[in-house]
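Exercise 7.
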Amino acid sequence: MSRGTIHTTIADTDALNAIVARHPQALEVLHRFGLDTCCGGALPLRVAVEHHGLDLDQVLAALRSTLEQSQR
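Solution. The predicted structure, written as tokens, is:
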């Protein structure tokens, strides 16, 4: 990664708290899907999404879209 480049990769193995630490704007997206960073923050995204019966691809797309918009 070059200097000044923002790391926008979010993997389904990333913990919710790690995602928010790197990308604070992701918190709003997680909350919109009902994902809690307080009690469930240590969970990997995939596990948290499965526990809530959500579609992983949809959550990842929303997160990535928010990150892309914030870089413009």
